Every structure is written in structure tokens, then in C-alpha cells.
């Protein structure tokens, strides 16, 4: 997104689809150049991350001279109540806003996919807008809004804002899923005597579950990652982890930040693996 | 009976659309509208919006623009017709965002091409390698890059150990550019890869058989087919780059100012909400126009082929 506001334009989470063709065709021209560029790019992407993780175990307080291996920065992270509070806030906000975004986004996708009504194309355009509006604009407009209606900033404003920017992503993911949905199974259920609610509960919902889980993981990651919007709608004592980290970085580097950053990296790796596993299971 | 059916139908649509529509209007559209209104307001002595309505905030943006042609060779060829503080700010933001998007594209394309041509097993592995930074917190990644490049960071420490002089790698326009490319690369590689992976290479052979040379085959056959990925990747890179805040602060130290950073400052350090709102509205208009034009051009390309 943020920054990462992101994925949807490319479908969902860069899902790996099996390719019909078998072996790679040989391509003589510039093969060496391609390999070189790719290697350098991956090195460029990973060296800073790896270096940061390595130095999170360095006992030197300042500078980048290696002294000795230590776990003390991790120890400090886990005994710092402000960090733990920020992490708890992040988890609360991510969980609740994921829940909200998934429910309202899915309902909206169902209305837009299954019915034709007046003003529909306007809604379609409107639902893309949060993807194009820069995060900073969304952040300050929400700050102004909460000030105008006199809602004091805190967890509530964070959750409201996170639902607002996660919902379009859930909507777009679910819309794609619903487009592939085979409605004859619903008709079959109704022919067999199920009423609409039972059909929804026992047929539609279970079939949509994989999509719902994917979009929930998407919303959860977007919410956990968000800094810019959170920065403007957060209040005293309701900092999320990225907002806390930002404050610490600006105050000057401490090795604790390296340790938190390393932990957050590990968390994203776990989330990526989880998504891949879920998608893999869906296919088989 | 049809009447009753219609009523039930519209009730159901309202029920499904209602919560989402409410959220989108109340917590997205209305805030933007309030921001637009505030951009036309004066400010009180604390910097907060106050009546009366005025055009002064927009006047402040353009007031020092003067016709002043100049050519300089500092940091490449610079030809300017006008100068002005905010004109320069907007220009620099768009220029940095555009250049970084092009550089990101030039790096990402060969990488995505390379990935898409690997045997399946390796393809999935490289895809995984792109997805990790894609899903990692942007702030954390930019911080990691800054940590690498800073004065007493690993690179300069290595240089000192080798007996070489340390180099200033941070807090320049170049550093901001590197930060933008670093941060946005995964957002460009992934959509490009998704398009390239679906691309059927026999089409190129067909084009060649029909007498097209490599460049023609690329331009007329490949480009239109991968343009969805190209458009998606460029927008995902350009939009955040124009409004970037984290990168400007961490890599540029706030010295290479960009519009997103200036807007943020109006809401924190120097409290001037009306002026900040005016800048934000102008930026939003520019980004939206750029995105719409780009979408259009992408679609035109596809139509030309069909």
C-alpha cells in the first residue's frame, strides 16, 4: 500500500496459476543480461533486509561495527510496555477493521455483481477511487473530518479509517470471486426446498469462504502495514506499531527498532506463506 | 404481485449496498468534500480553519510564479521558463515520481520477463521472493535501506575498514530517488509478472513469421497484451511516489522536499490546515488526471490492435 494500497489492480495477491505450457522456450538474445539484472535486483531488494536482521543481533549500541551476538534488543522489545501496547493496538485495529471491511465489502460485492440498478456505474467508479487517492490525502481528510464532527482521535477513529481504506480492496477481491460463482448450485438448493436464508447459510457462504479468507488476509495485512493514514488519525495512547516505530526513528536510531523491524519482517513472511498455503489448498 | 417483487428486490439491494455505501460516503467522500471546503477558508491565530471564505490559499500557491527563463547544468540539464516556490515543489514531485516510475519499470520489466520464463518450480520460488517485500511494511523496508546507507551504516563502516573515505549517501534528491525505486519495485514487478506469465510466446513467433521484426513484434503484439500489468504497476508506483512522505523524510531528510511531505507539515509542524488542504486538493487533481490519461492510453493501445 499502502502504499500498499495495492493488489487489486492485479487480481488477488499475485496468485500463481498453473501454466498450460511445459518447458521454457530457449531465448538466446540477452539471456545473460536478464539473469544479471534479475540477480542484482533481488540482491538490491534483500541485502538491506538481511543486513537489518543481522544487525538486530549486534551488541553495539551505535554504529555498524560488529561487536558480538546478543539477544538483548529482543529482550528489551518484549519488556517494553509501550511497544507491547502499540503491538496490541495494531492487532486490535487490524482484527476489528478486517471484520468490518470483510462484511460490508462482501455485501456490496454481492449487490453489485448480482443485481442491476440505477447509479451502479457511479458506485463502481467510486469504489476504485480510494485506490487512486494518495494515502496522505485520505489521512488528512479524515483528520479534518474527525475534528469537524468532534470525535476525539483514538482506537475508534483508527478502526473507522482502516475499514474505509480496506473495504474497496475486499470488495474488488470478492467481486472477482462472485463473477466466477456458479449460481446453479443455489438454484438446485432452492429446488430442493431450501429457503433463501438456508441457501445463503448452507450453500453460498461455504462456497465463498476461500475468497472471504483471502480478502480477510489482505485487509489484515493492509491494516497492519498502514502508517500514513494511521499517523493522522491516531491519538495519544492509541499508537499503532508503525506509528510508534516512526516516532522512534525520528528520535534517533536505537537497536530496539532493528529488533522490532526484524520481527515485523518475520511476521510478513509468515503471512505470505499462510496465504500461499491457503490458496494452494483451494486449488487442490 | 410484480410490484411486491420489485419492492422486495430494491429492499434487498439497499440492504446489501447500505453499509458499504454509508461507509464510503461518510468516511471517504464527505471528508474529501470538507477538505475541499476548508481549502477555501481563512485561518485563526492557531492555524485552524475559520471563516470567511477566501481564494487566498490558492493565491499563495501561485503568487510568486514569475516568468524567468533560465538554463542550468546543475544535476543535469535544467531548462526553466517560470520560477516560483510551489511551482517548483509540484514540478519536482511530479518529476521525481515520473522518473522513479520509469526507472522502476526499466528494472522491473527484465526481472518479470526473467521470472516468467523460468521453469515452474523456480518461477514460484522467485514469485515468493517478490511477494515477501511486497507484503512487508513499507516503513520498515525504507528504514532498512536508510540503515544500510547512513553515515555510520554498514556500507560506510566497510569503506572505513578498507581505509577508504566514507561517502554521503543520504539526504540528497538521488537518495530519495533510490528510496522510491527500492520501495516501489515489488509493486511494479508483480503486476508485470502476472501479465507476462499469461503471455503466449507463440504469438511472437507468429508475428515473426508474418514478417515483423523483434521491435515490431514487441510493440504491436506484446505491449498491448501486457498493458494491463503495465498500467497497474505504473499507477501503483506513480501515485504513492507523488504523495510520498516516508521516503522524503527518511531518505531525503526533509531536504529534498516533495508535495506530500509539505502537505503533512501543514498539519503537524506549521499548523495551516486551509493551505494544506489546498495543496492536497491540487495534488489529488493532478494524480487523478494523470491516472485517467494513463488508463485511457492503455485502453487505446488495446483498441488499436483489435
Give the topology.
The complex is a heterodimer of chains A (284) and B (306).
Chain A: H1 31-55, H2 72-79, H3 81-114, H4 120-132, H5 135-148, H6 155-179, H7 184-191, H8 196-225, H9 228-233, H10 241-251, H11 255-283
Helix pairs in contact in A: 1-11, 2-11, 3-6, 3-8, 3-10, 4-6, 6-8, 7-8, 8-11
Chain B: H1 2-38, E1 41-43, E2 49-53, H2 56-62, E3 66-72, E4 78-83, H3 85-116, H4 120-135, H5 138-149, H6 154-161, H7 173-198, H8 202-209, H9 214-242, H10 246-252, H11 259-267, H12 273-305
Helix pairs in contact in B: 2-12, 3-7, 3-9, 4-7, 5-10, 7-9, 7-10, 8-9, 9-12, 11-12
Strand order of the largest sheet of chain B: 1-2
Would you identify the CATH architecture of chain B?
A: Orthogonal Bundle
CATH fold title of chain A: MetI-like fold
CATH architecture descriptor name of chain A:
Orthogonal Bundle
CATH superfamily caption of chain B: MetI-like
Gross morphology of chain B: globular
Report the CATH superfamily of chain A: MetI-like
Q: What is the tally of helical segments of chain A?
A: 11
Averaged pLDDT of chain B, please? 83
Examine the coordinates and then state which fold CATH places here, giving the name of the CATH topology of chain B.
MetI-like fold
Describe the global form of chain A. globular
Strand content of chain B: 5-15%
Query: What structural category do the secondary elements of chain B indicate?
Result: mainly alpha
Low-confidence segments of chain A: 1-26
Along the chain, the helix and strand elements of chain A come as HHHHHHHHHHH
Q: In whole angstroms, how far apart are the ends of chain A?
A: 30 Å
- Total DSSP E strands of chain B: 4
* Assembly category: heterodimer
Main sheet attributes: strand count, strand direction, barrel closure of chain A: none
The largest β sheet of chain B comes out as: 2 strands, antiparallel
Q: Could you walk me through the main structural features you see in this protein, from its secondary elements to its overall organization?
A:
Chain B: Its main location: membrane. Chain B: Belongs to the binding-protein-dependent transport system permease family. CysTW subfamily. Chain B: This is Spermidine/putrescine ABC transporter permease. Chain B: It is a multi-pass membrane protein. Chain A is mainly α. Chain A has one domain: MetI-like (MetI-like fold), CATH 1.10.3720.10. Helix content of chain A is 71%, strand content 0%. Chain A is built from eleven helices and no strands. Chain A is globular and about 75 Å long. The two termini of chain A are 30 Å apart. Chain B has a single domain, classed as MetI-like (MetI-like fold, Orthogonal Bundle). Chain B has a two-stranded antiparallel ribbon with strand order 1-2. Chain B starts with a helix and ends with a helix. At the A-B interface, helix 1, helix 3, helix 4, helix 5 and helix 6 of A face helix 1, helix 3, helix 4, helix 5 and helix 6 of B.
Amino acid at each position: 500500500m499502502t502504499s500498499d494500497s495495492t493488489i487489486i489492480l492485479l487480481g488477488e495477491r499475485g496468485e500463481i496459476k498453473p501454466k498450460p505450457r511445459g518447458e521454457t522456450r530457449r531465448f538466446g538474445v540477452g539471456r545473460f543480461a536478464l539473469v544479471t539484472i534479475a540477480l542484482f535486483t533481488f540482491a538490491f531488494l534483500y541485502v538491506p533486509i538481511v543486513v537489518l536482521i543481522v544487525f538486530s543481533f549486534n551488541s553495539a549500541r551505535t554504529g555498524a561495527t560488529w561487536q558480538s551476538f546478543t539477544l538483548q534488543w529482543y529482550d528489551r522489545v518484549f519488556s517494553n510496555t509501550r511497544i507491547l501496547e502499540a503491538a496490541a493496538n495494531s492487532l486490535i485495529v487490524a482484527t476489528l477493521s478486517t471484520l468490518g471491511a470483510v462484511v460490508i465489502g462482501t455485501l456490496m460485492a454481492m449487490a453489485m455483481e448480482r443485481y442491476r440498478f440505477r447509479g451502479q456505474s457511479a458506485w463502481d467508479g467510486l469504489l476504485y477511487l480510494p485506490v487512486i487517492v494518495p494515502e496522505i490525502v485520505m489521512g488528512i481528510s479524515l483528520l479534518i473530518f474527525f475534528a469537524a464532527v468532534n470525535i476525539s482521535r483514538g482506537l475508534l477513529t483508527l478502526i473507522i479509517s482502516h475499514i474505509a481504506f480496506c473495504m474497496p480492496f475486499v470488495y474488488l477481491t470478492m467481486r472477482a470471486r462472485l463473477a466466477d460463482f456458479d449460481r446453479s448450485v443455489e438454484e438446485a438448493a432452492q429446488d430442493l426446498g431450501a429457503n433463501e436464508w438456508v441457501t445463503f447459510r448452507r450453500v453460498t457462504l461455504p462456497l465463498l469462504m476461500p475468497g472471504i479468507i483471502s480478502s480477510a488476509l489482505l485487509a489484515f495485512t493492509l491494516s497492519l502495514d498502514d502508517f500514513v493514514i494511521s499517523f493522522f488519525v491516531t491519538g495519544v495512547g492509541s499508537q499503532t506499531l508503525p506509528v510508534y516505530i516512526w516516532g522512534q526513528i525520528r528520535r534517533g536510531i536505537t537497536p530496539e527498532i532493528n529488533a522490532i523491524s526484524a520481527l515485523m519482517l518475520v511476521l510478513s513472511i509468515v503471512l505470505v506463506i499462510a496465504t500461499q498455503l491457503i490458496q494452494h489448498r483451494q486449488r487442490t | 404481485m410484480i410490484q411486491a417483487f420489485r419492492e422486495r428486490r430494491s429492499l434487498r439491494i439497499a440492504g446489501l449496498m447500505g453499509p458499504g455505501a454509508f461507509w464510503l460516503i461518510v468516511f471517504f467522500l464527505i471528508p474529501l468534500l470538507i477538505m475541499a471546503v476548508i481549502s477555501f477558508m481563512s485561518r485563526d491565530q492557531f492555524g485552524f480553519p475559520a471563516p470567511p471564505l477566501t481564494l487566498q490559499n490558492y493565491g499563495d500557491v501561485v503568487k510568486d510564479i514569475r516568468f524567468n527563463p533560465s538554463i542550468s547544468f546543475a544535476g543535469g540539464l535544467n531548462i526553466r521558463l517560470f520560477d516560483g516556490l510551489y511551482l517548483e515543489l509540484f514540478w519536482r514531485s511530479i518529476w521525481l515520481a515520473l522518473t522513479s516510475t520509469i526507472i522502476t519499470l526499466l528494472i522491473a520489466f527484465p526481472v518479470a520477463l526473467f521470472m516468467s520464463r523460468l521453469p515452474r518450480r523456480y518461477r514460484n520460488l522467485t514469485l515468493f521472493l517478490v511477494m515477501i517485500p511486497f507484503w512487508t511494511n513499507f516503513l520498515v523496508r525504507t528504514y532498512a535501506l536508510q540503515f544500510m546507507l547512513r553515515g555510520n551504516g554498514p556500507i560506510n563502516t566497510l569503506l572505513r575498514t578498507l581505509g577508504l573515505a566514507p561517502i554521503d549517501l543520504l539526504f540528497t534528491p538521488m537518495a530519495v530517488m533510490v528510496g522510491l525505486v527500492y520501495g516501489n519495485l515489488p509493486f511494479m514487478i508483480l503486476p508485470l509478472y502476472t501479465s507476462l506469465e499469461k503471455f503466449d510466446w507463440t504469438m511472437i513467433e507468429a508475428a515473426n513469421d508474418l514478417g515483423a521484426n523483434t521491435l515490431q513484434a514487441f510493440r504491436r503484439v506484446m505491449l498491448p497484451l501486457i498493458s494491463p500489468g503495465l498500467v497497474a504497476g505504473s499507477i501503483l508506483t506513480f501515485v504513492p511516489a507523488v504523495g510520498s512522505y516516508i521516503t522524503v523524510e527518511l531518505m531525503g531528510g526533509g531536504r529534498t522536499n516533495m508535495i506530500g511531505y509539505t502537505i503533512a507539515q501543514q498539519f503537524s509542524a506549521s499548523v495551516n490546515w486551509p493551505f494544506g488542504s489546498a495543496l492536497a486538493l491540487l495534488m489529488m487533481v493532478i494524480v487523478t488526471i494523470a491516472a485517467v490519461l494513463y488508463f485511457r492510453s492503455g485502453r487505446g493501445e488495446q483498441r488499436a490492435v483489435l
